[in-house]
Amino acid sequence: MTTRRKFIQIGTLASLAPISRIFGMKRPPMPSKPVVISTWNFGHGANAEAWKILSTNGRALDAVEAGARVPEGDPKESSVGLGGLPDRDGRVTLDSCIMDEYANCGAVACLEHIVHPVSVARKVMEKTPHVFLVGDGALKFALEQGFKKEKLLTAESEKAWKDWLKTAQYKPVANIENHDTIGIVALDVNQNLSGACTTSGMAYKMHGRVGDSPIIGAALFVDNEIGAATSTGVGEEVIRIVGSHLVVELMRQGNTPQQACELAVARIVKNQPKKSKEIQVGFLALNKNGETGAYALQKGFTYALYSNEIPNKIFEAKSYY
Ligand code: SD4
After folding, report:
1. Atom of ligand 1 nearest to the CA of 181
2. How far apart are CA 120 and CA 130, in angstroms?
3. Of 54, 136, 226, 253, which has the most beta carbons under 10 Å away?
4. Average model confidence (pLDDT) for the chain?
C-alpha cells in the first residue's frame, strides 16, 4: 500500500511550470470525475472511505468528512484525533475545518476530548451563525450536539510526551510520518468541490497554540469556480502566506494546480530563505477539471490520489529542496 514512486504530475506538462523541474515525461490522460486527493500515507484509507460516497454520486462534502474521520478515529495515528500527540502540558488539542461548494465553512480549534473534530466543524458550519469556535466553547457546543467526551491521550502518546519532557526541546522535524495532518479535497460527479483538514497540530506545541489546519484560507480553501487546496507541515509558515487561498488564487490566474503549489512553496522560501531549508510544508491542489498538483519544501511529502484512472495510489510530491 505504501509503495512510493515518482509521480508524473497530471497536467503539469500542458505548459511550462515556472519553477518546475519535471522534464521528458509523458502527459497522463485527463482525469474524469470524481477525484479525491489527500495528504500523507494515511490519505489512502481516507480516500477509500471518501470514494464510497463519490463513486455512488454522493456529495464531495460528505466524502471529505468521511475521509477525514478515518485517521481521526485511528488510535495508532499519533497526529490526528484519538491518539494524537499532546501539547507540552500533556493535553491533546485538536484543530479542524471544512468547506463546501457554496463557500460555507466551519472550524474548531484547541478542541479537547472529541474524537471527530471535523464533524464538529461541520456542525459549526451547519448549525450556528458562526464559522469558528475554539477551546471550551467548541467543546460545550460539541457536547450539546451529542458528541461524546472521551480521553484522547493513549498510553503510547503519553509515553512519547514523557520522553520528550526529558529534554523538552521544541524542534518540529520534517516528515515525521506519524505526526502529520490530513488535508483532503474532492471533486464529485456533479462537478462540486469540497475540502476538510484535521490535526492534533505540532506535537509538544505551547498550550493554546493553533496552527494553519483549522484556518480557512491557510490549510484549506475551496472556490467552486476554480479549485481547492490544502496544506500540511509547519502551520506558522502556511498562515504567513495564507497558503491554500494563495494556491486557489494562483489557479484563478491561469496556473495549473502543480504550478500553483510550486509558486506557493516558493513564496515561503522567499519569506524564510534559511528556515525553509529545515522545515516541511506541503500543498495539494485540485482544480475544477479534476487536475491535481502537489509540491513540498522537502522530499518525503506523500499523498494519496483516487480517480477512475488512478485507483487510490500513494505518490511522493516533488520538492523545492
Ligand atoms: C500544524 N499543519 O498544526 C499542522 C501540523 C502538520 O504535518 O501538518 N504537520 O501546524
Report:
1. 8
2. 13
3. 54
4. 89
Give the ligand 1 atom nearest the CA of 95: 3
Which residues fall within 8 angstroms of residue 7, CB to CB, at 6 or more apart? 294, 315, 316, 317, 318
42-45 contact pairs (CB < 8 A, 24+): 42/70, 42/71, 42/74, 42/77, 42/80, 42/180, 42/182, 43/67, 43/182, 43/184, 43/302, 43/303, 43/304, 43/314, 44/1, 44/2, 44/304, 44/312, 44/314, 45/70, 45/71, 45/74
The residue contributing the CA closest to ligand 1 atom 10 is: 235
Pocket of ligand 1 (CB under 6 A): 180-181, 199, 201-202, 211-213, 232-235
Instruction: Using the mean position of ligand 1's atoms as its centre, give its distance from the Cα of residue 211 in Å.
Output: 7
Q: Which of 156-170, 189-203, 231-245, 275-289 comes out lowest in average pLDDT?
A: 156-170
Phi, psi of 37 (to 5 degrees): -135, 135
Question: Residue 57 in 3-state DSSP?
Answer: coil
Instruction: From the CA of 205, give the closest atom in ligand 1.
Output: 3
Cell for 55? 463513486
Given the DSSP bridges, would you call strands 94-99 and 193-199 parallel, antiparallel or unpaired?
antiparallel
pLDDT at residue 171 greater than cutoff 80: no
Q: Are 99 and 126 in contact (CB under 8 A)?
A: no
Tell me the catalytic residues. 181
Cell of 21: 523541474
Which pTM value belongs to this model? 0.89
